[in-house]
Design a protein that fits this description.
With 323 residues, the protein is mainly α. The protein contains ten helices and no strands.
Length: 323
């Protein structure tokens, strides 16, 4: 059986294993060091504008604290937490895409897929979790639209709604599914270690690609979609993320050396694809950001775009080789 049973007596808060706590402490130390550097730089380089950078760091603190707290949650509470993230992401998505008046009568069913999808995870029903949205929701939503009778823009509308539910609900739900894996298969860090490994590498890859692109970037990789993305940044991100994946693997995961390298490459490449895919969506809609929920970062979709692509791939890799 892939998923484990969750008992009714489970506490709302659970303490992660020491390896997870140590890596979390290092992450806070790193973020604290960056914050300190910016504080000092503002004093000695008064002519430079640090407003956006300061705003981004403040928001990063909020993100790190919230994600850290999610690692202390019980399994059931963590599932509810990521269901809320799915809801916020889907809601933001529906606010930026063009919809027909008749489509508003379909949105209820899209939102209803969130509690149902996460319910299958919480009740240990892996078979339904894996097919509910790709099969049942995929078939039901166009049927409901047909019954409403408005065929103008039908294909564009059904494709837009399907893509949103698949990305914001189905792909995101894989993160909640990680909480349901058997912790005994990863005795050094438990499921929290697997989740921290994914979250940290995903965010680190974004930062690494940005850094190497700014430092050495000369050759645009997809200029028509994301002008700031460069080949140098992309390759630099892959290399540094893979190195970090190897260094962290013995402390947070059961994966061996070669699988750690592969996961580093997988997370870096899939994260890049998720990032540029969201950039393509924003360009199509003539938007700079998907929202204003996270000051300095934009909307929640701007922050989780790479995670939506990496999480399902990461889950299935870990499941296939270690569960």
């Amino acid at each position: 059986m892939l998923f484990r049973h969750v008992y009714q007596g489970e506490h709302l808060i659970q303490l992660p294993l020491p390896n997870v706590l140590i890596i979390m402490a290092l992450i806070y130390a790193l973020l604290g060091g960056i914050s300190g550097w910016v504080f000092i730089a503002k004093r000695f380089q008064a002519h430079r504008n640090f407003t956006e950078l300061t705003q981004r760091i403040k928001t990063f603190w909020v993100i790190v604290i919230v994600l850290s707290f999610s690692l202390f949650m019980s399994t059931r509470l963590a599932i509810v937490f990521w269901a809320m993230v799915s809801y916020l992401a889907l809601k933001e998505y529906f606010t930026i895409i063009p919809t027909r008046a008749v489509d508003r009568r379909i949105l209820f069913w899209a939102y209803l897929s969130i509690p149902l999808q996460y319910y299958w995870i919480a009740t240990n029903w892996y078979g339904m979790f894996i097919i509910f949205i790709p099969v049942y929701v995929f078939l039901f939503m166009p049927l409901r639209m047909v019954i409403l009778g408005d065929t103008r823009g039908f294909l564009r509308s059904v494709g837009t709604l399907h893509w949103g539910v698949m990305m914001m609900v189905y792909c995101m739900s894989y993160l909640a599914a990680l909480y349901m894996l058997t912790p005994n298969n990863n005795p050094q860090a438990g499921v929290q270690g697997l989740i921290l490994y994914l979250l940290f590498l995903n965010q680190f890859n974004d930062a690494a690609q940005f850094f190497w692109g700014k430092k050495f970037g000369k050759h645009k990789i997809i200029p028509s979609v994301s002008p700031n993305k460069t080949i140098e940044g992309f390759v630099g991100g892959i290399i540094t993320t893979s190195i970090l994946a190897v260094l962290l693997a013995p402390y947070l995961t059961p994966v061996n050396f070669y699988h750690a390298i592969f996961l580093g490459i997988l997370i870096a490449v899939a994260g890049f694809i998720g990032d540029v895919t969201m950039s393509a969506l924003k360009r199509d809609l003539c938007l700079k950001d998907t929202g204003q929920l996270l000051p300095g970062h934009g909307g929640i979709l701007d922050r989780i775009d790479s995670l939506l692509f990496t999480t399902p791939l990461y889950f299935h890799f870990i499941h296939y080789f270690y569960y």
